Amino acid sequence: MKQRRRSIPAQWAAMLCIASALLLFGCSLPKIIVLHDPLTAEEHDNLGRIYESQGKFDLAGEQYREALKLDKKRLPSLLLLGDLSYRTRDYPEAESAYGKAIKLDAKNGDARNNLAWVYITTGKDLDKAKDLITEALTLNAAHRPYYLDTLGVVLLKLGNAAGAITALEESVNTLPKDREDLLAEAQGHLAEAYKAAGEEVRSKK
Fold first, then answer.
1. What is the mean pLDDT of the chain?
2. Residue 123 to residue 190: CA distance in whole angstroms
3. Long-range contacts of 194-199 (CB under 8 A, 24+ apart)
4. Which of 110, 115, 151, 202 is most exposed, with the fewest beta carbons within 10 Å of its own?
């Protein structure tokens, strides 16, 4: 009488298959494939601008951050991220981005001006805002009218109405006439300065 052959349990069979596979591949698991980012940092920035123009701010921010992953010292990406963060009221990220931009480009007046506005808006450090915009005025003469508006607002918030009036009057008189939006904003700031100085008639005018 022949002896009955015992069958291998299914679980054991599976374990034998796995062991065989490990021996076949040199006892190592397949390596994870890391996909390469096909876009350059500049292309990420351009895509971010498109998203931003469409009002897709979250997607725009992701693109600027991706650009910085490829090049953490990329100045345009830092400025774009700073501007977007300020626009969306993410002031800590705006402060960080502008601060890094200033460290990369010590002569960048616009980054200083924009960081000053972060401090103006948050009321966090007005003395630092004053220092930043004062430095900016020495760095970029072409943007002096814009920086004077910022300086005027800082001085007004610091309680120096007379100094604010001086800065804002020059700003209003020297801003490009075709920039009606910025001119109107500066005139509004000047009206506030006149009012703070007790000059109600000039403020209304």
1. 88
2. 19
3. 194/165, 196/156, 196/161, 196/164, 197/161, 197/162, 197/165
4. 202
